[in-house]
Write a structure and sequence with these properties.
Layout: H1 2-21, E1 24-35, E2 40-42, E3 45-47, E4 54-65, E5 68-76, E6 81-83, E7 87-100, E8 103-105, E9 108-131, E10 135-158, E11 161-172, E12 182-195
């Protein structure tokens, strides 16, 4: 009986080792710009554009079956800007996506993805804003559900290190603070792949 258990344990270990080698984890840090329709005025109220600024961020994906997997990312505006000319605000975008990353050549991999996430608008206050459940912060958040689609091209330039030009389209539900319900992010990410690529 002990031999059967030992044999089963060794078989399971070898099977898992083979499966792990077929999996891939990619992580990256990127810098992007954001574009959306220009500012509008409606009923005497200015609705600014989300365009402009630098958006640094992090992304990671895990490919587990036939180059299909899951991906997550977060990008935020590097500096605050004055909303309506008087209140500092900083947009933050996060998304959780399904991803397909087909290999085009030895050093080039495409990425196609889509999923859901959110836009977190952080309006900064002069003092602290406190709540029982979240403690104290210097901002008030306005959150909006969003969907996103996009893609990129990974170009491996040294071992498992890659540069990835990328684009995302954000579809933001009920984005009443700004001039539009959509925005496009364009940028480049420096990343590294762990596991077989």
């Amino acid at each position: 009986m002990k031999r059967i258990i030992l044999f089963a344990a060794m078989f399971a270990f070898l099977a898992l080792t083979g499966a792990v080698q077929a999996q891939q984890l990619d992580v990256g840090f990127g810098v992007s710009g954001l574009s959306s329709p220009s500012s509008t005025i409606s009923s005497g109220i200015l609705y600014p554009s989300l365009s402009g600024g630098v958006y640094p961020g992090f992304s990671a994906d895990f490919l587990f079956l036939h180059r299909v997997g899951v991906e997550g990312e977060v990008f935020w505006k590097a500096s605050q800007f004055n909303y309506g000319g008087y209140e500092p605000v900083r947009p933050l975008f996060y998304a959780f996506n399904a991803i397909w990353a087909p290999r085009i050549s030895k050093n080039i991999t495409a990425e196609l993805l889509g999923g859901i996430g959110g836009e977190d608008l952080r309006f900064y206050q002069n003092g602290y804003v406190c709540s029982f459940s979240f403690g104290c912060t210097t901002y008030i958040s306005s959150n909006h559900f969003m969907g996103d689609v996009g893609g990129g091209i990974r170009a491996y330039f040294w071992h498992n290190a890659f540069l990835r030009p990328e684009a995302r389209m954000y579809f933001i539900h009920n984005n009443v603070e700004f001039s539009s319900d959509y925005a496009a992010r364009y940028g480049v990410t420096l990343g590294y792949s762990f596991g077989g690529r």
